[in-house]
Design goal:
eight-stranded mixed β-sheet; 22 strands; about 45% helix; about 15% strand; binds phosphoenolpyruvate; binds magnesium ion
Length: about 775
């Protein structure tokens, strides 16, 4: 419903309106004047082009409130004095829910909030769009009209495109003076709290992680050249998707085919291509066009409430991200990696394990994320590569600038941003002190882990990358209790072929120099995603089609991996472990597949492993009620306490809100573990614990009290856990743990800590 200015009431085609606005915005940004002037000019301009009675910009402040920063049509005195509380009114709703508000009768809407100082009660209709930057709402742009009307899709597009330009210019500092709301705290020293994900203290400089490619250049100078870029990228995208489809692993009928077919159709959709081209013709760069079309289409799809549209929306998001990656060349180039400071502290809202691995590990010192929990895979990877990491650091992204000095203290759970000289000096001392302690642990390296009453505990190491393997000798671990094979797959651009896998497992065994290694087969799903292996989107991937479930249903990938492991261990001992086993009978199918591979290799004259043990992860609580079927079918068991606890407590391990709500040192988990230990003894099946709890001295002490004699953990935990074992009396801790279970003690952790203190058990934390 855009109209020409002046007396001509004929509607303008929206692309023309868009082009006009883009040109004017570009001019405004290039003009003299401070930030306030520019915002004032923008609102005037938009009100004119959209024939709106009001156009306003609100920006978010640190406390989440929205401050009126510029307006055309409302009372000018309200600028900088009107503040909407978080979520207040329709504008607050727009920011809080990151959603478009299009209300013909705004003042009648239940969420309408009347602000007398703005004189806005005379306006009927309102259209508000969030101003977003890197997926975060930083403000709201709205228009209002005196007459009741529903704004058209074109109006929405124009306003959204303007919001993008505003966001870009605010973030890049081109609109000086507007920093009051969003920049104020980015210059002061600041301490934020978080949950330790990976132990350590790191001093360094901030690098902001951008999870998806952020479109920086919005306006194109040469639309024709831009169309060419877009067309090329679309061709590449389609070719890539077609290729992905022809992949042998995706062949064959099944539900996934329908899902993938719909996705492919979307990629080839003429309507989508047309919209993208039109957006570029309207003056946007190809990247900005992808983003804008994604936003507009998402808005339309969200109006449909059925599952079909939700799926299409996911496809659209995925395709748009892919197209942005194609346009940008790649997610992370080696150039980017070498531009990192040598003491990088990575700061992110959210990060998956594969994304962390995209960075050059030799330059990473620390990681700070706004979500994340100690059990998430990004925490596992952070530990594996030995960087200090903190999760649940609320609001950190908005409080840092790249290049800021920062200290990650994953011992105390604190982040120091822009620390003073004294704080830096104090931390440098701390780091030196820790290094001395580390030296002490190193001195324990060659001492076997034996308790004071002579009980030998096997202390093993968790690994997942070849770079982890030198830690085996350095830490003095007895072996690798968990080798997470999926990490290698995550690092790869395509599914690693047989030879590549074989070579990898062979190198791991070589590096282990005869110490035992437990290879866990692929555990994909949940927060572990392989970019090249498209799986149907699932509502609950952690409880979805993952690990052994995939292995049984689609044995090709599994068999390939088993074959590689068998070939790699010719003449040596091989231990294979299956993740996410849910029922004893599943091991029958798995053993049959392994036997098939053994027979194949034998038939073709390969040297077989000297011995083969087939074990299972104990991660799903149903196994507790199937022990008599399960235990006779495995050669060993390893408790994946991260998953076991998430399923036992129904508390998502990656959801910071609930992950640390329940304590592993409490009655239910201890009793669960005790039942397993007891039954395993009956069936003579060795049990290890390889989840995160095994690496924490107090938890490891409790495990010994529960009868466990083997634990596996991140390399950095070996020293502290060994020191604990050497100072522990196994029988005494057994008595203590049993008494606590018998009496059903509530505060188990406090009691155990008291025990450790009285008995002089070294609990370093
Ligand atoms: C676990 O679940 O405890 C485990 C060791 O496996 P992962 O963390 O890789 O899921
Ligand atoms: Mg697990």
């Amino acid at each position: 419903m855009t109209t020409r200015r002046g007396d001509d009431p004929r509607p303008l085609p929206s692309e023309t309106a868009l082009r006009l606005i883009m040109r004017r915005l570009r001019e405004i940004m290039g003009e003299e004047g401070d930030g306030q002037d520019k915002l004032d000019r923008i609102v005037r301009q938009i009100a004119g082009v959209m024939v709106a009675d009001v156009c306003s910009i609100y920006l978010k402040r640190q406390d989440g409130s929205l401050e009126l920063f510029a307006t055309e049509g409302l009372n000018p005195n309200a600028v900088h004095s009107t503040r909407l509380k978080r979520g207040e009114g329709l504008v607050g709703r727009c920011a809080e829910l990151a959603t478009i508000v299009n209300e013909p009768e705004a003042s009648k809407h239940p969420a309408f909030s009347y602000r007398p100082e703005t004189n806005e009660e005379i306006f009927h209709s309102l259209l508000a769009v969030p101003i977003e930057r890197s997926g975060q709402v930083i403000g709201v742009l709205d228009v209002q009209n005196k007459t009741p009307k529903e704004y058209s899709d074109e109006d929405i597009e124009v306003l959204q495109a303007t919001a993008m330009v505003i966001a870009e210019n605010l973030a890049s500092g081109r609109v000086e003076g507007t920093g009051a709301a969003i920049e104020v705290s980015r210059s002061q020293p600041m301490v934020l709290e978080g949950e330790p994900l990976s132990d350590g203290i790191a001093l360094g400089h901030v690098v902001l992680h951008e999870p998806r490619i952020v479109v920086t250049q919005l306006l194109a100078d040469n639309p024709a050249a831009e169309i060419e870029r877009l067309d090329e990228a679309l061709d590449k995208l389609q070719a890539h998707i077609d290729e992905m489809f022809e992949h042998e692993h995706l062949a064959g009928a099944g539900e996934h085919r329908d899902v993938l077919e719909a996705y492919r159709m979307f990629a080839h959709d003429k309507g989508w291509h047309k919209r993208l081209r039109e957006a570029v013709q309207g003056g946007l760069t190809a990247e900005a066009a992808v983003e804008r079309v994604q936003n507009t289409m998402r808005t339309r799809m969200l109006r449909q409430h059925d599952a079909y549209w939700r799926e299409r929306q996911r496809d659209l998001d995925d395709l748009s991200d892919r197209l942005l990656r194609v346009l940008s060349g790649r997610i992370m180039s080696s150039d980017d990696a070498s531009n990192l400071p040598p003491d990088t502290i990575l700061v992110a809202r959210t990060m998956g394990p594969a994304e962390l691995l995209d960075y050059d590990r030799t330059r990473l010192r620390g990681l700070i994320v706004e979500d994340g929990s100690a059990q998430s895979h990004v925490a596992v990877v952070a530990k594996a590569i030995g960087i200090a990491a903190l999760g649940q650091v609320a609001g950190v992204v908005d409080r840092v600038n790249s290049g800021d000095a920062a200290i990650v203290d994953a011992v105390a759970g604190e982040v120091h941003l822009r620390p003073s000289g004294e704080v830096i000096a104090a931390y440098s001392d701390k780091v030196r002190f820790r290094a001395r302690k580390q030296k002490r642990y190193q001195a324990l390296r060659d001492r076997p882990a034996v308790t004071k009453d002579g009980v030998r505990i096997s202390v093993q190491m968790n690994a997942g990358l070849l770079v982890d393997m030198p830690h085996l000798a350095e830490s003095g671990a007895d072996g690798v209790g968990l080798y997470r094979t999926e990490l290698q797959f995550m690092l790869s651009d395509s599914f690693p072929r047989l030879d590549k896998q074989t070579q990898h497992y062979r190198s791991v065994l070589n590096e282990a120099q005869g110490k035992p290694v437990v290879f866990r087969t692929l555990d994909i799903g949940g927060d572990k995603i392989l970019p090249y292996l498209r799986q149907p989107a699932e509502e609950n991937p952690a409880m979805g089609w993952r690990a052994i479930r995939m292995a049984i249903d689609r044995p090709e990938l599994f068999r390939l991996q088993i074959r590689a492991m068998l070939k790699a261990s010719e003449g040596r001992d091989l231990r294979i472990m299956i993740p996410m086993v849910t029922a004893g009978y599943e091991m029958i199918a798995i053993r049959a597949l392994v036997d098939q591979e053994l027979a194949f290799l034998k038939k073709h004259g390969y040297t077989l492993p000297k011995s083969l043990q087939l074990g299972a992860m104990f991660e799903v609580p149903s196994l507790l009620f199937d022990l008599d079927n399960f235990l006779p079918r495995v050669d060993f068991v390893s408790v994946g306490s991260n998953d076991l606890m998430q399923f036992l407590f129904a508390a998502d391990r990656t959801n910071a809100r609930v992950a640390s709500r329940f304590d592993v040192l409490s009655q239910a988990p201890m009793r669960a573990l005790k039942s397993l230990v007891k039954a395993a003894k009956k069936y003579k099946v060795p049990v290890t614990v390889c989840g995160e709890m095994a690496g924490s001295p107090l938890e490891a002490m409790t495990l010994i009290g529960l009868g466990l004699r083997s634990v596996s953990m991140a390399p950095a935990s070996i020293g502290p856990v060994k020191a604990m074992i050497l100072s522990l009396h196994a029988e005494k801790v057994t008595d203590c743990v049993e008494a606590l279970m018998k009496e059903g003690a509530k505060d188990v952790r406090a009691n155990l800590l008291k025990f450790a203190e009285i008995e002089g058990v070294e609990i370093d934390h």
